[in-house]
Amino acid sequence: MAIAVGDKCPAFTLKDQNDQSFDIQSVLGKKIIVLYFYPKDGTPGCTAEACSFRDSYEDFKDLGCEVIGISSDTAKRHAKFAEKNRLSFILLADTGKTVRKLFDVPTNLFGLIPGRVTYIIDKKGIVRYIYNSLTNAAGHIEESINAVKSILHEEA
C-alpha cells in the first residue's frame, strides 16, 4: 500500500554517495525531510532536478530541512553524479529498490520508468505532502518549499 499524507515515514537504511550507511532515523524528529525519489543519475530531467535542489539547498537548510535524493543507482555512481554537479545534499543508493517499494512509488510509462515523487516529512515523522510528477522535475523544488513553509506556518 502506498505511503499517503498522514502516514508515518517508514524506517530504512541505505548507503549514501560516500558508501556510508545512512539511517533515516538519524534525521527523523530533528528536521523536516524533503525526500525525493528520481529515476536515474545523469539523465537530463534528473540532473535538472538535482541541480535545482542544489541551487535551493541553502533555502531548505534555512527552513530547517534536510534534502535527500533516492534512486536505484549505486553509491559509486551517486558519488560521481554529486561531484560532477556539486551536490551537497544526501543521495541514497536504493539498488534493490526496497525503499522505493516500501513507499510504493509509482512507475510511469507502462512501468518502464521509475517515478519521480517528493515526500515532505515533518519533525514528527509524518508525511505531510506528496508531489508526483515525472515530467515537471523543477516543480518538485517549488512545491517542496511551499509545503515546508505551510508546515512551519501551522507550527508557529
Summarize this entry quickly.
This protein is an alpha+beta fold and 156 residues long.
How would you characterize this protein structure?
- The protein has helices spanning 44-62, 75-85, 98-103, 139-155; strands spanning 13-16, 21-23, 32-37, 65-71, 90-93, 107-108, 113-114, 117-121, 127-132.
- It is 34% helix and 25% strand.
- A 7-stranded mixed beta sheet has the order 2-1-5-4-3-8-9, with helices on one face. It has a two-stranded antiparallel ribbon with strand order 6-7.
- The mean pLDDT is 93.
- The protein has one domain (13-155): Glutaredoxin.
- It is globular, with a radius of gyration of 14 Å.
- The chain has 4 helices and 9 strands.
- The protein has 156 residues and is α+β, with helices and mostly antiparallel strands.
Distance between the termini: 32 Å
Q: Main beta sheet: strand number and arrangement?
A: 7 strands, mixed
Which descriptor suits the 3D outline? globular
C-alpha-based Rg, rounded? 14 Å
Quote the average pLDDT: 93
CATH fourth-tier homologous superfamily:
Glutaredoxin
Q: In terms of structural class, how would the helical and strand content be classed?
A: alpha+beta
CATH class: Alpha Beta
Total domain modules:
1
Strand content: 25-35%
What is the annotated CATH architecture? 3-Layer(aba) Sandwich
Q: Low-confidence parts lasting 5 or more residues at pLDDT below 50?
A: none
**Helical element count?**
4
Strand order of the largest sheet: 2-1-5-4-3-8-9
Q: What are the defining features of this structure?
A:
156 residues, alpha+beta, Glutaredoxin, 7-stranded mixed beta sheet, 4 helices, 9 strands
